Amino acid sequence: MTETRTSSQAATERPTPEVQQYLDDLNRIGNPLDTMTAASVAGLRAQREAMTPALIEVEAVEGVRDVLIPAPVRLIPARIYTPADRRLARDGKLPVVVFFHGGGWTLGGIASYDAIARGLANRIPAIVVSVAYRLAPEFPFPAGLDDARVVIRWTAANAPAFGGDGQRLAVAGDSAGGNLATVAALDARREGLPVLFQALFYPSTDIANADYPSYRQWGDGYLLTRKAVETFRSFYLPNREDWSRPEASPLRMNEADLRLMPEALIVTCGCDPLRDEGEAYAQRVRTCGVCADYRMKSGMIHACLNLFGSRLYPQASQQAELILEDAAGAIRVAYIAHDSRPQ
């Protein structure tokens, strides 16, 4: 079972036995994140998307609908998940979460995150819009971010067409997706869009800097390695001068912008090189007056949500499910709190 712990307890962290078994198997066959090249990454991406249905068991939802969202230079694929549970419906419409997958702005997609999107939809319950934003190295910064901005605008305007409430929006994302979610949420709030909550799972918030104790402790042998982070960064941000831009490293946003952020849940994992920058981001957002609930999950590693539904590691899947349920509860509370305010 995972626990929420503080950074003062981080020195004694160890992966849970179930997660360690996954790591042992991964390191025995070789971590593909450590051998990525610009030439090979498309094949790795396609392989992961194709293999996921055989490895991950998914839950039923009431409805699944694939859509193409119009953007200036392309149509953005997205998948809309509708839960059967209607308890949060208002005037017949459910709240909506726009979800951005992780994968270093390079890997991941709708298929490999199908289980997570379904799990969130059922557990909140809310409609989830899962986004296939453009990926690096084919489409470097800011292509994925531009897509994220478009999808939030489109969702706010078009939610009633798929049973959603465009006035009750949240964003969510893991790792690189958490990075896109929080930056796009700020832009949406600047435009007056009703993004009322953000749920960030082990987000990348300071891609310019790997000089954190958690990198030294967990930067090799725990799935996401320092080498992999540097490779992802070279794909997504080939121009070094972009690394410190707040649109790429939101920890570096100015205070005025951070004050515009919606309420946040920021989840990190005890055995993750990104743990410390995630905690730093939560602290900085709080300092700027935004309610930010920070939770560190003991014994868990980066990308642990991808173990949810795993047929090979069912006990690790149960641990990932606890994180998903915890976050779904926080999102649900945010919706209920919004609905209880005078309109």
List the helices and strands and how they pair.
Blueprint: E1 4-5, H1 17-29, H2 41-55, E2 63-70, E3 75-82, E4 94-100, H3 114-123, E5 127-131, H4 143-158, E6 164-174, H5 176-190, E7 195-201, H6 213-218, H7 226-236, H8 255-258, E8 263-271, H9 275-287, E9 292-301, H10 314-340
Parallel strand pairs: 4-5, 4-6, 6-7, 7-8, 8-9
Antiparallel strand pairs: 1-9, 2-3, 3-5
What does this structure look like?
There is one protein chain. By secondary structure, the protein is of the alpha/beta class. It has one domain: Alpha/Beta hydrolase fold, catalytic domain (Rossmann fold). The protein has 10 helices and 9 strands. It has a 9-stranded mixed beta sheet, with helices on both faces. α3 packs across α10 and α4 packs across α5. The longest helix has 27 residues. It is globular, with a radius of gyration of 18 Å. The termini are far apart.
Which terms summarize this structure?
disordered N terminus, alpha/beta, 10 helices, Rossmann fold, nine-stranded mixed β-sheet, 343 residues
Kindly state the number of beta strands.
9
CATH topology descriptor: Rossmann fold
Roughly what is the average pLDDT, rounded to an integer?
96
**Low-pLDDT regions:** 1-8
The CATH class, by name, is Alpha Beta
Strand order of the largest sheet: 1-9-8-7-6-4-5-3-2
* Helical proportion, percent range: 25-40%
Distance between the termini: 40 Å
Separate helix tally: 10
Radius of gyration: 18 Å
CATH architecture: 3-Layer(aba) Sandwich
SSE string: EHHEEEHEHEHEHHHEHEH
Helical/strand content category = alpha/beta
**Main sheet: strands, sense, barrel:** 9 strands, mixed
How many domains make up the coordinates?
Answer: 1
> For the record, what is the CATH homologous superfamily label?
Alpha/Beta hydrolase fold, catalytic domain
Silhouette:
globular
Strand content: 15-25%
